[in-house]
Amino acid sequence: MWYFCDVFGRIWPSPFILFYLLAFWIAPAFLHPQCLDFKPPFQPQQELEFCQMYKYFGCCDYARDQELMAKYYRIMDNFDYYGYSNCAAYVQDLLCQECSPYAAHLFDAEDPSTPLRTIPGLCPDYCSQFHSKCRSFLTLLSDDPRLSELQHDQHRLCQYLELDDPDYCYPHLLSNERLTKNLGRTAADSEGCLQLCLEEVANGLRNPLAMVHANDGTHRFFIAEQVGLVWVYLPDRSKLEKPFLNITKAVLTSPWEGDERGFLGLTFHPNFKYNGKLYVYYSVEVGFDERIRISEFRISSTDMNVVDHRSERIILEIDEPASNHNGGQLLFADDGYLYIFTGDGGMAGDPFGKFGNAQNKSALLGKVLRIDVDDNEKGPLYRIPPDNPFVHEPNARPEVFAYGVRNMWRCSVDRGDPNTKEGKGRIFCGDVGQNKYEEVDIVEKGQNYGWRAKEGFSCYDKKLCANSSLDDVLPIYAYPHKMGKSVTGGYVYRGCENPNLNGMYIFGDFMSGRLMSLKENRNTHNWEYSEVCMGVGLTCSFPGLINNYYPYIISFAEDEAGELYFMSTEIPSATSPTGVVYKIADPSRRAPPGKCHHEPLSVRVRSNLIPFEPKETLIGVHVPTKHPRLSNPEEPPDTGSKDWLQELLDIFREQDEQITPTPFTPTTPKPIRTSRQRKGRRRKSKHKNGAVRLVGDEEGRGDRGRVEVYANGEWGTVCDDLWNTKNAIVVCRQLGFHHALKAAKHAEFGEGTNLKIILDDVQCEGTEETLLDCQHAGIGTHNCAHYEDAGVICGKSGLE
Hints:
This is HHIP-like protein 1. The chain crosses the membrane at residues 12-31. Residues 656-691 are annotated as: Disordered. Residues 692-795 form the SRCR domain. The chain has 800 residues and is α+β, with helices and mostly antiparallel strands. It has three domains: 52-181, no CATH class; 194-598, Neuraminidase, CATH 2.120.10.30; 691-795, Mac-2 Binding Protein (Roll), CATH 3.10.250.10. The protein has 13 helices and 38 strands. It is globular, with a radius of gyration of 30 Å. The model is unreliable at 1-29, 624-649 and 651-684 (pLDDT under 50).
């Protein structure tokens, strides 16, 4: 145990110091430290002088610490030496609990139905000691009239100051290892799945597939829809009514779900603030040919929020032999050059030519291209950087920077560690696989990324794979199609607001809806995987945070300050307005107040503004009202009731081994089809269509198990594709439970191999009577196996 000495020379055990020494250790989930401003605690930028027990982690910055110290001296000036020597430490203790990581709980601030305390909740033994020595200080510490009434009655006073939950009273809180040893660390479940939360930023978008900033100091962000519209959002999240760019008439796309054509990429020139240039990547139809087009535009001379549509200059066009694998990423790297990421031309297996487009350096498809678009007002629209790797190779296109890629979907440049700049300039890409593996690559000059010889780490074309001249670079990570079937590349987090996430590459999968992360081991330089889950229990119960998202993860984004976002949609169609932009938040620790503050440059707005109205909500969390303090301390308390947070902790302690939250893992929904009834009479069954049962729990508990549903005269299992809390709610409510605690996946309660798979791709609203009433692929129609059997954990109360 570590110790520290406060301003009065007292020695204190400090479990909070462990946070400082083990800043990125991953903590078990479910605890809910919270400050009086309803936000997570933080590590102060400047060490506290007065409330030193919280100098490494808590809810006070240096300025607030100084204010509390000044208040302390104002109080102590009222007393003589005897009062000072006996009560100074007590006064300091009580004042400093505002800095506790659990301040919201100590002061009853986390529940608006109860009055905010002016004195923190005290443990009875500590309260008795305080009363016997320093009760005259109470009226100076607080203006609560009840305290002056009870000042001379120790029993009633301490009952009034007591918390319902003895674990959270001061000072026992400091020695409660369960509450203190993991403070400030990114929460994770028993399997290491990181518990993060989200903040809704924009909604009502049609397949939002790019969100970029102009790096011009305005902190605007620009969101592109697949149909060819780009919208401007201001820092307050209001949207300009007039589009920034509208090339819908030129863009080739369709309403078909999964159509890969359309407006695919957008980036601003590094000197946009001065030259007004931006670049777009989109699909076009020229005669009977489909092409990808990279064009340059300029900003309007009269409106900084609108593109001059007459300024378009076509930088490059490439014929597309098929409608898929169109690539779509544009970015400027640290060298100032424009990078273009093309797909391999489509169809399956890159069938073009002897070795495919990706391995053919004379083709522009299946490549990373690098060109120079500076000073292009006269002469060629682009130039070849002199250090491009194949400029002197006969028959190779000089634009080629790297090759052997299949269809890189979403790439990003690492800003580097905010302090050391370690990692700065690395280009990360997700490369979509064929039929077995998805991969993440770091793109480097002149390298071959293996396709079509390899897919992930394995051989795809065995003959090419055996070629000794392949000399390919392996991905930093690859995952099989049981985890997801279409990687969406992300970003290395380098923002300010979530210090624990620094250096973590966060990405996702479009088909399965998984959020994932990689972090480089500094010693081995291997990339270590952690899944990202939405926070369970009270983890995300902070104002403005949610714990759910639409399943089709289309793209990731970074704002001008480096904070991380992703875009997903409920229906993956270019015409469906179900797209939402989410900001990623770590509920375990925030940056110190004021550290991340920035002043955006003013934006002259000529368009009407549409205020942002969030539509998403926190789900699966029911916080019961805490029992208010007794107005009459002599009234006997309700001994049969528990403080809600203690109830939560007790249940989580009991169920820690069973509850293993997993993220959204949906796949592409299939059209609803109704199975035909068999001919002939059926024997009358005692079960009704849609009946459910839970089986497979090793301890025989009736509130959890593998979900089996009765349909058309037989029992069967449910596949976990698209399985989520709303589906679980339908099952649990049907069985007489009030709540669903978990939507279990991956055959957590065993495989029902003796049964058919009855349902797949189930999508419920949570209000249906049975799973059969929900959208699904059709009774008996599926594309999964029993290792994906779904299950649930139900509860009689929201915290059970």
